[in-house]
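Researcher: Going back to the complex we discussed earlier. I've cleaned up the inputs and rechecked each line, so this should be the final set. Can you rerun the prediction on the complete assembly and write out the structure?
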Amino acid sequence: MTNRQWLLDHPTLLLFAGLGLVLLTATVIGRVLAMVHGDTPTIDNLNQRIDAWWYMVAAMGVAFLFGLTGLVILFALLSFWALREFLTLTPTRHGDHSSLLLLFFIGLPAQYALVWYQWYGLYSVFLPVYGFLVLAIAATLRGDTENFLQRVSFVQWGMMICIYFTSHVPALVTLPLILGRSSDGLLLIAFLVIVAQGSDVLQYIFGKLFGRHPVSPRLSPSKTWEGLVGGIASATLLGAALWWITPFSVPVAAGMAFIICVSGFFGGLVLSAIKRDRGVKDWGRMIRGHGGILDRLDSVIFAAPVFLHLTRYWYTV
Amino acid sequence: MALIRTLAARATARLIAGFARLTTGVYGDWRGCQPALNQRVYFANHSSHGDFVLIWTVLSVRARRQTRPVAAADYWNVPGLRRFIGAHVFNALLIDRRAGGGAAITAMNKALAWGDSLIIFPEGTRNTGDAPLLPLRAGIHHLARAHPAVEFVPVWIDNISRVMPKGERLPVPLLCSVIFGEPISAMPDEPRDAFLDRARAALLQLKPGEGPP
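Model: Rerun complete. Updated structure for the full complex:
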C-alpha cells in the first residue's frame, strides 16, 4: 500500500479535501474575528496558528505523495528539529559532546533507516536498549562526572521523546493491516495525527470558550477541565466519524481515538512539566503562533507508540 | 571584474548566512532595540570563531553592508578565499595584532568617523573557560567617549560554545540565539572603570538563565 496507487484512492483525496475545507472555514472565521474585534493578541495568535496549519497539512500532503519514504524523511526531519529544541534547553557539558554527536548523526538516521527497512524487531529495541547503553558509555569515556546521572538522563530522554516515539508515526505505514473498510497504513497515520491534533485544537477551543477550572495550574495554566472534557469528547466523536479510513469498526475507532486523546493529553502535560523545569514557555519558535516543533508534536509523541501497539496486536495479519 | 566580484561576494554572503542558519538555527532576539540602520557598535561576548558570523547573519542585508566586523589581519589577510571573504563578503576591518592596541583603536576610530558600524569583542580574546565573561578591555571606552552619538549595543551570543566546544572537530546542531540589549553610551565625565562595569553588566544581563543545575 505504499506505492503511488493511493493517488487514485478515493479516501485520501476526500480526507485532504475535508481538511482543506476545515482550514478554509477556520481561516474565514479567524479573519472575521480580527475584523470585528481588532487585532487582540489572542486573535492575532489564533490567525498565526491557523496559517501555520496550512503549512503543516501541506507538508503532510507532500509526504503522503511519497508513501513510506516520504513519511520517514518528514518525521526524521521533525525528530531532528525536536531533538535540537530539546537538547538546547538541557544543561549538557563539554563531556557530553560525543553523546550528542552520536545521537544526532548516528542514532537518529539509524532509527529511521530501520523503520524504512520495516524491521520491527530491531527498531523497537535499537534506541531503548542499545542507544541507552551507548549514550551512557560515551558519557563515561569523557571522564566528566559532574551531574553525571542528570546529564546522561537528559540526553536519553531527548532520544526517547524526540526520536524513538516520534519514529513510531511513520512506522504505522509498515503494519500489515487486516482487511477492513480501509487497510491503508497511510490513512492510519492520518487518523492518529488528525485525532491527536484535533484533540489539541478542540481542547483549545473549548478551553477558550468555556474554560474556568485549571487542571494543573502549575504545569499549564491554559489547560482547563472544561477544555479537557469538551476537547476529548469531541475528538473521540471525530475519531468515530473517521472509522472509514481505518480497519476499525465505529465503536473501536471511537475507543482508539479516546486512547489517543488521553495519551496525547498526558504527552502535553509531561512536556509542559519539562518546560517549567527549564524555565521556558515554548520549546522554540519554528512554527509561528505555536512555538516550537515539540509544542505541536507533544501529543502525537505520546500517542504514537500506544496506538501502534494496539493496532499491531489486534488489527494485523 | 568588479561586478563579478560583487555578485560573487553577495552570493557567498547568502551561502554563509544560510549555512549558519541551517547548523545553528540562529535567530536575532531584539530585546533592547530594534533592527535599524543607525550607526552602531555591536559589542559581544566571544567564545568561538563563529561569533561574528552569527551576529552578521541575523542583521538585515542592508545593515550587513554598513557593519564591519573587527577581525585579526593575520587570519583574514591571507591570499585566496580567506582574503576574498574577509575583504569582500564581510568587509572586515582588519587589525594588525602585532601593532598594538593603539593602532587598533585608531583604525576603529577612523571607520566610525567614516560612518561605518562595527562588531567588536571587548574581551579581546576568546573565552574558553567556565567564567561567563572575561574582563573587558579599555578600548571600548575610548571608542564610546570619542563617538557619543554612536549607539553601543550589547549583544549576547548564546550557546555557540556548546555547539562546538574547544578542541572539538564536529559541531552539534544546537540552537543559538543572538540577543540584542538596550544601547548604552559613555557619559561625559564617566570614569573608565565605571563605563566598563556598565558595559559588562549590560552584557551579562542578557545571558539567559541557566536553570537549576
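Model: Worth noting: The mean pLDDT of chain A is 91.
Researcher: Good, that matches what I expected from the previous run.
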